[in-house]
Structure formats: structure tokens, C-alpha cells
Amino acid sequence: MMDKAAKKLPSETSNGNGATNAMLPSDTVPSQPGAVEPMMPARVNACWSCRGPVMAGDLFCSTCEAVQPSRPLDPFARLDLEPGFEIPSEELDRHYFDLQRKLHPDRFATKTSRERAISIALTADINTAYETLQDPVKRAITLLEMQGMTIHADGCNTMSDPVLLMEAMEQREALAEAKSLDAVEGIATVAGGEKANCLAELADAFGKNDLSTADRLTTRLKYLIKFEDELRTARARHSQAP
Amino acid sequence: MLVIPKPPEILTETFPETVMTTLLQIHEPGETPALHEGEHDLAVGIDLGTTNSAVAISHDGRPEILPGEDGSFLVPSVAAYSEDTKALPLVGELARRALLEEPESVVSSIKRLMGRKAEDIKSLAGTLPFEPAVGQDGDEEGGMVRLKVRGRTLTPVEISADILRALKMRAETTLDHAVDRAVVTVPAYFDDAARTATRDAARLAGLEVLRLVNEPTAAALAYGLDKNAEGVFAVYDLGGGTFDVSLLRMEKGIFQVLATGGDAALGGDDFDHAIAEYFLAQRTEGNSSHALTRTEVKTALMSARLAKECLSSAQDGEWVIDTDGATTHHRLDRETYESLIVSFVERTTDICRHVIEDAGLAPEDVSGVVLVGGSTRVPLVRARVAELFGREPLADIDPDAVVALGAAIQAEALTIGSDSLLLDVTPLSLGIETMGKITEKVISRNTPIPVSKTQEFTTYQDGQTAMIIHVVQGEREMVSQNRSLARFELHGIPPMTAGAARVLVTFIIDADGLLTVSAREQTTGLEQHVEVKPSYGIREEDMARMLRESMEHAKSDMSERLLAEAQVDGERMLVALGAAFSADGDLCAEAERDHINRVVTHLRDAIAGADRDTIYARIAELDKVSCAFAERRMDRGIRKALEGKQVSELTEDDLSSGAGAGEDKKGDDIATAR
Fold this sequence. Notes:
- By secondary structure, chain A is mostly helical.
- Chain A is 53% helix and 2% strand.
- Chain A is built from eight helices and two strands, in the order αββααααααα.
- In chain A, α5 runs antiparallel to α8 and α6 runs parallel beside α8.
- In chain B, α3 packs across α4 and α5 crosses α10 (402-415).
- In chain B, 38% of the residues lie in helices and 23% in strands.
- Classes of the chains: A mainly alpha (242), B alpha+beta (674).
């Protein structure tokens, strides 16, 4: 099973409310990659409202029903999903909507200012997690980081793969030389197929827990998605041309 | 340059939230609370439009427009000011009629100036039906636009407040009940400045804004609930002065905005101006020395509006401009008219294309197009929209009423409860100025709100102890091309080598689409925390003065809201303690319980009274006397958790969660960040 200790994931540290490394409770420092899950007693927090016990992870106090503050969680745990590369979008949406139905600020319009503030922080964190998991590149990076891989600041390991580098150069050259919208569409079809393949291979690599392959494929996927932007620009250029 | 001032104490307390309440029960999450007769103020929905406004109310999910005494649904967004500077202006149809007779005392289309700075409107000069004041104290950098009307100098916020006050009075007359709370709609493409200005206007009119809702989203809510629509819908909203398009997914009561776009200065007014210019060019033809008078321009605009409305059904017509001793006749046919406005219509369809692309969709993925706003009656608009989406747009709800109806549904949802939920996005990217005057994006457009993002910044010079944080909104790369929202300084950074400091800047956009920025330097552990609510020309002290001066709620406004807040906090305490006794009553000996109950009675009395300080004193007292009981409950809870749950039964969350103390700290941070 995956190491679930609260790590400084980009998606988590980049969301606000002071949820940064320095703010993490001292006992949630990331454990070593691949460490065996520690045996710990269940955690009990004090409810901010009735000051009684609340099981960690409960969204609401079981005694007084007060909404409980947000806490550092990886995006999968935040949306109550098993970590994995393949998440059907309907399932992601269902979990997201279920949480929003309970926690959205509109549900707290007549509650105390504390509850409203908690609701904003919780739904902001949920929205960030949702955005992360919707995006295959961010999802893959999250999974890699959760398993202790270091990902470079720009969101991907540098293009050290000579095959990919070559492929990228050739594709860009072809696009620059495309004379018509049809030619652009032709390149787009090929790139679309490659993206689908890459996603399938990536799912396979994560399934086998082959992290170095997953890392390489993530870089490739990132490039292919960036290339889609370039295709869009090229398409716009050709469709405007008289 | 602005050093961020700490707002006066009373003001930070008075307006910390956009939501206030008198609802005292606590309910199951998601459960719909019942409304007790007379306990509540009514909450209405208001569409504050460029040309027309409307107010509506909803009961049991069925919204209706509140008509005026004459039965009219719409209130023209026009205010006419009289000589008597103390008197409230005339608002609505009567003011609109005064537009011709005394144009200098009438203001229309004020929405176009909401949140705009004095320097912004230079580009609009000549297109506005009113005269901006020049050389006023509001003209300093960042100052708000001011208008000179009949010896008064008014901000757009004050003029909008006058219109909102008239809508509030209409609702109170029709319902025969006080109305203090409202959901107010804004164009989805309004920036933070215009949103804040709208909220301030409502506050000035004595309305507590429960939520600012984007106009296309409100329309989708009304349309979707009425027609049981499911799937991806586009809402094309072309009003008098603003254009919005939103793509929404509607599914089982969830209204999820996928992408939104628009132009906050594009609407039917532009059609009027195009026609008026055409007429005036004809009028002055062969007489280029003729200087147009203000009356001539206003008359031409009135004729242009009539022509526009007429040409929605007729193929051609003739209009007469009879003023300033000259009578001219102007023929206009549909084809010429359409050639005058086609560039505006094409701008809207271009924006639609971008929004569809932003959502990662194609036009054929859209299962319906809902038309909103009076300007969608124009045949060319309908034809171009139908062409773009490959289907006839839906217009089976009155495009002038649908936004107010949606706002009313949302007002009911916020106060009474609802099964439906709006999930909206931020229309514009937010960023910060970095070296070279380049915008560094922190939150991209179409990010679901609420959203909170933190970015780390550092110093670029050795020994630098202060940092300027300049917040901008917009999609452009250069800072100067985007809207400047706030500029503040973070001081007290310990002198270090360049790049060693760690300054975390946090942006929070709440469910109203309003921004809060805070920053902290945390290298030394000595944390500095500043936060800023961007403000636009209206300084908080001016706001307080205006509130004082506005007649109806001179004293009540602030103190009542503070009291209501205290009452809600007190009730929360009582509910929590009651629940604790039901769960763990056996942990409390009789004598202790009696003691607690006495304080409970005191708190209850205080809540029934009108003094917030007493309420908070009683809350603190109750907190103190029930402290030992709470500790025993915690002990029991921890023991139970250790005994009762085998490790195999534990969820992953149990194993990964943090300690209570750390989380509490976080919660408090959030509370202060508001």
C-alpha cells in the first residue's frame, strides 16, 4: 500500500490556508519511501465547538454536528478515492459532488463565521484536489511524489530522454511546415493516437508499480499535452488565413 | 504606493463576512431546515442590470418577479436627481421619462462604471450618457469615477445604491414585509473591483448580500430547475452593457460551471450608439461645423433604442429627431441596421468559441443554448448564436426575468435550504507582479471557487527587508495590461542574502468571487501576517460615512449585524453543549451540571437581549465552567478509540491524520484570513 503520510505535495502546499510544511503537525513528517505503514492507534481530535472527541477524518463532529477544519491530505484521500492512475471521471465527479453537497459555503450561509470559514477552506482544498485528479499529468506527478520520487519544480523531470527529444523536434518541425488546415489535422490525429497510447502505457506502468517507466511516460505525456496547445494555435492560424 | 493600513477596528468587525443570519437552529448537514413564521426576514433575488433591473422572491422553489404598483416587472436602471440634495432620486420608469426633459439630472447605464477608476473611463469618453466629474478629489491615482449630477458629486456605488434601494422598497411594498437580505447578480465577467463595488452598493442600500451570483449561472439555475434540463448547456447573456457566456453541466441538481467568458463593456447599448451615430451623421450631413448638443445626442440615443426594438420585428422604419429647432427624418432598414452592429455580434460569438475551447468541448457537445438579456431579442444575435452551436437557441423563459428568478431561487436556497447546488468558477486569472513587470499567474481563469493558492516568493537584493506585493487580474503577460487590484508592502523581512527569504503569499477567492490576499514571511519563524481586501476608490472610512449618512439605517446597520453574529455564535455554543450532554451526560455530576445549567440560562437570556458584549461574556463563562466536563469527554473518547477499534478496522485517515492542536491552529488561521 502507498505511504499516506502527509507529504509536501505540490498540490497540497500550493493550496492556501497556511497548509504548508511548517504548519504540519510534527508527527506527520513524511516517512521514508516504501516504509511499512506504522501501527498507530486511531487518532482523536477535540471538536472546536463542543470540545468532545472527533475521529480524525470525520467531516462533521458526531456529537454536535459542527463541521471540522481542513487538514493536510493527498488529493486522493481528500476526495475519498483509492490512489491510482485510472480514475473513471464519473467516479471522480460523484465523489466531488457528494463532498460539495455537504461542505459548500452555500450550505453554511446561516451558520457561524467559524463554520463558514472552515467551509471555504475545505471546499478550496477539495477544488484543488479535484483539479489535480482531473489532469492526467498532475495526477501522475502526485502518484510519483506520494511514492517518494522527486519531481522537478517545473512539474516534470527534464527532457533527458533522447528518443522523446527527437520525436518532439520532428513533430514541431512537421507542424511548422504544415501548409494547410488538413495537414495540421493530420498531425493532430497522429498526436491524438500517441496521447491515448501514452495514457494506456502510463496506467499499465502504475498498475505494475514500475515507477521509472511511469516517470518517463509522465514527461512524455506532458510534452504531448503541450503539443496540443501548439496544434490549437496552428489550427487557428490556418483557419483564419484566407 | 500603498502601505497596507490596518483597517479601523470597527470596520473589520463590521464587515468581515458577506453573510449574516438570524437562523438559530443547527441542522443535519444537507438537511433542509424549516422556516418558522415571522422568525425570518425575507430574502429576495435582485438582477441589477445596465438597462433594467428586477426583484424576485421564491417560495418552495417557485420563484416569481415582484411587480411594481403599475404591474410592471422591470425597473429601468435610471435615477433622476432633483434640486433638493436631501431627497431620494426618482428611480425607474419615471426617471427614464425625465431623461429627455432634463438630461442633466438623470443617470442611466451606471453599471458600466462599477468598479472603474477615473482613468479607466477616458477610453469610454463620448460613449457615456453622462458627464464624469473632473478635477475632483477622487481623481488621484486609483480614485473612483465620480459623476456631477445636479450639484452633487456621486460615485457609481451611490447611484447603484439608489437603484437597489428602490428595488428593496418595491419588494417591501409588494410583500408588505421588511426585506433586508438579497442575492444580487453580477456579470460573470465582472472583475473583483466591480464585484466589490456592487456589494458595497447593496450595503449602502441597507441590503445584506447573501451571495453575489453570476448572471448566467443564476439564469441556468432558473432555467434548469424549471425545465428539468440535464447535460451541458451554454448560457448566452447579452444585456444592455455586459456580455457573458457560461458553459454549465447540469446534473441531478448540481449546476457546475465548466468555463465562462465575456466582456464587461459590450451590450445592447453599443447597438444604440451605433444607430445613434448613424442618425447623427445623417443629421449633420453637409453641415460639418454643426456642434452636437447634449440634448441632440440624448434624443438620438432614444430614437436609436426605439429603432433597435422596432427592427427586431419590422424590416424597416423611419424615425424623427426633433430637437434644438431642427427636425430630421431617418430611414433605417434591417440590412443596414445589421451591418451597423455585426462587429459587436461577432465579438460575442468569438468569445463563445474561446469559452467552448477552454472547457475542452466542441459546439456539438452542447445540448442547449439558453438566451438571457434583452439584447438577445435582436434577430441577428439569434441567427449567429444558432449558427455557432448548430441549433436553435432556447428562449422559452423571459430573457429579462430569468436572472432575477434564479437569484431568488438561490436566496431561498441560502436561507431556507435546497437540494440544488451552484459550483461556479473565477472568470479571470489572478497573478502577482514579478521582476520585469511580468505577471506571474497564481490562479488561472475557470478555476472552481472557492479557491485558495499559496505561492512562495523571495527577495532579489541582499539585505532587502521589505517587499511590494502587487496583485493583478487578467490574462495578459504584462502587468500594465491587466487590472491592478491591490498593492501592499510586507515589512520586517530580516536582512538576508538575496533569495534566502521565504515569503508565502496566499490568495483566497470565496464563493462570491471576492479576493483576499495575505502574506507571511517565515524564514525566522517570526511570522508576519498581513492581509488585504482590495479596495477601489471607496475607502472604508468613506463607506462608513456614507452608511452613517444614509437615512434609513443610520444606527441599525452595523450593530444589528454584529448582534446577529453574536447570537449565532451563542446558539452554536448551546447546541454543542446540549449535544455533549446527550452523548456523555453521565460524565457530569449533578452539582456541576446545575452550575453549567445556570450559566446556560444566562447565555440564553443574553441571546434574547440586544447586547453582544454580554453574549460573548456569557459564552466565555460557559466555556470556562464546562471545561472540565469537556476534558472528561475527550479522555473517554480517546479510551474508546483505543479499546474499541482494532487496527485492522482503522481507516487510512485514522493513520495519517494530524494531531488536534496542529489542526486547530490551521482552523484559526483560516478564520483570521477572512
